Amino acid sequence: MSETTPAPSAARGTDQETAPVFAEEARILGLPRSRWPDILAPIIVGVLIIGLWEWVVRYKNIPAYLFPGPLVIAQTLVQDWHTLSGALWITLRITFAALIAAVSIGVALAILFTQSKWLERSLFPYAVILQVTPVVAIAPLIIILAEDVNLSLLICAWIVAFFPILSNTILGLNSADHNLVSLFQLYRASRWQTMRYLRLPASLPYFLGGLKISGGLALIGAVVAEFVAGSGGSASGLAYRILESGYQLKIPRMFAALLLISLSGIVIFLATSWLSHRLLHRWHESALKRES
Q1: Which helix (H) or strand (E) holds 290?
Q2: How would you class 161 by CB atoms within 10 Å of its CB: exposed for 0-12, middle for 13-18, buried for 19 or more?
Q3: In sequence order, which residues have a C-beta less than 8 Å from that of residue 142 and are 6 or more positions away?
Q4: Angle 68-265-104 (CA atoms, 0-180°, nearest 5)?
């Protein structure tokens, strides 16, 4: 008795008919439809708050030198853009320099600390002391010792941004799967091979989380240091422009400078969030898209 086998074409047709088909998500202006509620919700809330703010100022007839409305602040931002943009660039230059220094020194020390527990026990407490000491309290001393205003501002901003990078990277380096560490030891991988191929990739999500925090803290540290230093002239940042506007009762300009600081912080957070998503979205659980 001969057995009959299904034709290959029939089998392929059956597989194609039974295979699940996932419809591609519709896109609006190049973005997936599911992303738009996350974008529109904060925009709508922000527009409502700004509208309410403007209405209260106009209804109560509050003078601009006491509490300006959003329209007056926007007009001042346009009129004084030349002065404010130069101050913004100076503040951002200090912020990014401090952030780069925090990342470089923080990651290097984290790697050294995980390679030598003796070094970690000896030096990590001093990093904690730097973190818990208010930068406002030690900024005058730093300004006196550094003998250079820009260098002292950089040091103050670095102190604020340094610890999250260090602590998060150490946590990530120590969070590598112990079974994989044992496997690397079984195959006689060197310590630096284990660091490069196992511990550093495992620490990437923790490092990026610390980077999000340090980005905003570097901006805060730069602004606070500028307040303490109080350096004026054409090479002064946004903090001095705020002080100057307060002394001269130019309150709309003060609010415009505050707006630029806030927008800068938002842009820094969005940039670090985008970087985190680009590096993690293909493999890490925190960034993988889940079907609802």
Answers
A1: none
A2: buried
A3: 152, 155, 156
A4: 155
Q: What is the pTM of this model?
A: 0.83
Give the integer Cα–Cα distance in Å for 88 and 99. 16
The predicted-structure confidence for 16-72, as pLDDT tens digits, reads as follows: 444 444 456 677 666 677 777 878 888 999 999 999 999 999 999 999 888 999 999
Q: How many C-beta neighbours within 10 Å does residue 209 have?
A: 19
217-244 per-position pLDDT tens digit: 999 999 998 888 766 555 588 998 999 9
Calculate the average pLDDT of the chain.
86
Q: Are 171 and 120 in contact (CB under 8 A)?
A: no
Q: In sequence order, which ranges of 27-148 are alpha helices (DSSP H)?
A: 36-60, 70-79, 81-115, 117-132, 135-146
Q: Are 199 and 229 within 8 A, CB to CB? A: no
Which residues neighbour 235 within 8 Å (Cβ) at sequence distance 6 or greater? 90
Integer Rg of the chain from CA: 27
**Contact yes or no for 84/257 (Cβ under 8 A):** yes
